[in-house]
Design brief:
- By secondary structure, the protein is mostly helical.
- It is about 75% helix and about 0% strand.
- It is globular, with a radius of gyration of 17 Å.
Length: about 120
């Protein structure tokens, strides 16, 4: 079993490794593996996030997008920005990539405001 600080950093470390690998690696199979590692980290983050939701179920809105895709949207924005910057490094694409990253991080921070781990009532007393 891992210690808690290391356990909490695992999804972020997978995403950082995936992003850095996209910038550093050249072969196509390595780029595909980098995207898979990044999306795996995002998926783990979403699973933990769903488990830690504290908002009431009656206040949750259902949308047209499937829940899995909705959870991955901020990470897809960041991945698109990194890919755009890596494969099309022009002035306008750099600005667009920065906007996508900013919006993706904004969505992650906004969603994290309702996701805090709670102890069961019998333990928290």
């Amino acid at each position: 079993m891992l210690i808690k600080p290391l356990y909490e950093l695992l999804p972020f470390s997978y995403m950082v490794i995936g992003c850095v690998s996209i910038f550093l690696l050249e072969p196509n199979y390595a780029l595909i593996a980098s995207v898979v590692v990044y999306l795996y980290g995002a998926h783990i983050y979403n699973l933990r996030s769903k488990n830690r939701r504290t908002d009431a179920k009656r206040k949750r809105k259902s949308g047209l997008i499937p829940e899995t895709l909705y959870g991955l949207m901020p990470f897809i924005y960041v991945l698109t920005a990194v890919s755009l910057y890596r494969f099309y490094p022009r002035d306008s694409s750099t600005l667009f990539a920065l906007c996508l990253i900013a919006y993706g991080v904004y969505l992650i921070l906004r969603r994290s405001s309702y996701r805090h781990h709670r102890l069961p009532r019998s333990i928290s007393q």
